[in-house]
Amino acid sequence: MKRKALQDIVLIHAHVADDDLEVDICGKLLLARTYPNNLHISDVEFINPYKKVPTAEQSYQFHKYRSLGLFSELLENIRLLGKESGIAKITLTAASSDQVPYFEKHGFSIEKTAFAEHATAAGRSIPMQKKCI
User: Fold this and answer.
1) 8 Å CB contact between 56 and 62
2) Which pick of 6, 17, 49, 59 has the fewest CB atoms within 10 Å?
3) Burial class (CB in 10 A: 0-12, 13-18, 19+), 92
């Protein structure tokens, strides 16, 4: 390619200082700016480690704790950053097929690629995208 494929990357882990918690991470986020003008969201999770979700109420396969409801705000901040920085597309990978409708509500769609078709059929690691500008 002779181009810098990965232009910038940040990984954030937010912890709660409480030894009594089973899980002390309340926020996890990896953002990567990639060639040509994309921003990839990975490992996004904003949870309240004090509020477990009973198994019967779990909406998603990995829904063990109540959400902090920050994903919409994250997307709005990314959109604003995208306008300033020329980000054309936001991408992410839905960990499981039951998360796809959630991301679709936020304007993402499944990529139209052979890999995406296979991932969708397998119900795991489903690549999704959304225009930013």
Assistant:
1) no
2) 17
3) buried
CA distance 23 to 65: 10
H/E stretch holding 38: strand 38-52
Report all structural domains of the chain as residue ranges with CATH numbers, in order of start.
6-131 (3.40.630.30)
| Global confidence as pTM | 0.87
Q: CA–CA separation, 116 vs 133, rounded Å?
A: 23
> Which residue from 85, 79, 80 is spatially nearest to 131, judged by alpha carbons?
79
Q: What would the pLDDT profile of 48-85 be if each residue is shown by its tens digit?
A: 999 999 999 988 888 899 999 999 999 999 989 888 98
* Residue of 117, 101, 98, 97 whose CA lies nearest to 109: 101
